[in-house]
Each structure stands twice: as structure tokens, then as C-alpha cells.
Amino acid sequence: MVEDDPAIAQPLQRALVREGFEVTHADRGHLALELVAAGPVDLVLLDLTLPDIDGLDVCRRIRLSQPHLPIVMLTARSEEVDLVVGFDAGADDYITKPFSMAELGARVRARLRGTATVGSIQAREIRLDLDAHRAWNGDDELALTPKEFELLALLVAEAGRVVSRQRIMQDVWGDGWYGNTRALDVHISALRRKLGDPAGEHHHYIATVRGVGFRFELADG
């Protein structure tokens, strides 16, 4: 993770470690290049605004030495021209600040799996465009609130695995949720309705794992 602002770097590193990642932090571009060269590194989260050398320059240098290493840009720049320059420099994906941990986690896992197109994730008939904040069930677009979208993105990114209630609250609602998960149950119910999940115990998409959390099912039944 290459980020010079400690107010962003420290909580981001803690959140990624909670999700099971091993994170090495660099606050300078030159240090990042040294760490990547020393390796092994599986993925680079790269801020574009650095105090010593431009993040785009860091991206270009990494790409020259390691053409297949995934690079995800962390940027406050959202203009199309900046994104085009970033991709031309060799970035695989980008996420614009401010972002949720659910969205970042989905993008990182997609890049590590190497199976997703830029900015999109999919499980079964459910597909999400992370850049446009749009979701579909087959050919039908889903009308989701921002929190419903983040929740679905997290569950789809972890399809087949149980995601704990605590992790969902931390990733989607942040550190200020204070142990109250009632909002999660309300959003899960609304999400199930929009996905067409039947009422009752059997659900096509989002299963409840009692006492733990929820799982997006890879197959129906």
C-alpha cells in the first residue's frame, strides 16, 4: 500500500489486515519501488499523489519490471482524462476517494483472482459494475440504495464464503456502528426482495448462517 497520508494509511491498513491481507506500507514512491523489487508482492494499492515522485511514474516503473503485477490506483482524481492516463501508465483498476472498504475489498479480491474485468464482479446471474454503481440480475437492472449496493458487492466478492456480521458492519457502515446490527438485517431483507429471494428459510441467493453472518450462494439449493 503506497499512501503518504497517515490519516488514510493507518485505518486502511488495519481494515485490510482484519480481512486477512498482509500489508506492507510505503509512504514514498521510491520506498514502494524498493519494496516491490525486493518482493514478493501480490498487488499494489497506489496513491497517485506522493511527496517525492508522481504515482503515475511509480506505476510506469513497476509495470516495466513486473508486467503482470496487479496495480490498483487510489485517487482523488475522477476526471476521465486522469483515469485514461492512469490506465496508460499500466494500472489495472482504480478507486476514487472516498471509498468504502466493501468496494475496495471487492476490487482487490477481483484483481487477485485475475478473473474480473475492470470495475466489475459477478456471481451466478448477479453482476455489479463497481465504477457506475449499477447492478443486474440477468438482464434486469436492480434499483439499489448505496448501502444495498455496497452490501451486495461485498457478498458477491466473497461468494460461497460466510461473511460475518461484524465484518459487514465494519466494511459497509464503518467503525462507528457501535455493535448495533439491526440496520444490517433491514438491508438484507430489502436486498433479498430486490433479488427475488423467496420469504422463509430457503433463499436462492443470500443465505443466513445463524450466529455468524451471511453467504452468497454459488448454486441454488
Structural notes for this entry:
It is built from eight helices and ten strands. It folds into two domains: 1-99, Response regulator (Rossmann fold, 3-Layer(aba) Sandwich); 120-221, Arc Repressor Mutant, subunit A, CATH 1.10.10. The strands form three sheets. It has a four-stranded antiparallel sheet, covered by helices on one side. It has a three-stranded parallel sheet with strand order 1-2-3, with helices on both faces. α5 packs parallel to α6 and α6 (146-157) crosses α8. The longest helix is centred in the last third of the chain and has 14 residues, at 182-195. The chain is α+β, with helices and mostly antiparallel strands. β1, α3 and β2 form a beta-alpha-beta unit. The chain starts with 5 loop residues before the first helix and ends in a 5-residue tail after the last strand.
Cα-atom radius of gyration: 18 Å
Strand residues, percent: 15-25%
Output the CATH class name of the largest domain: Mainly Alpha
Q: Could you say what the CATH topology of the largest domain is called? A: Arc Repressor Mutant, subunit A
Tally of individual domains: 2
Q: Percent range for helical residues?
A: 40-55%
Shape: elongated
CATH superfamily of the largest domain: Winged helix-like DNA-binding domain superfamily/Winged helix DNA-binding domain
Q: Please give the number of β-strands.
A: 10
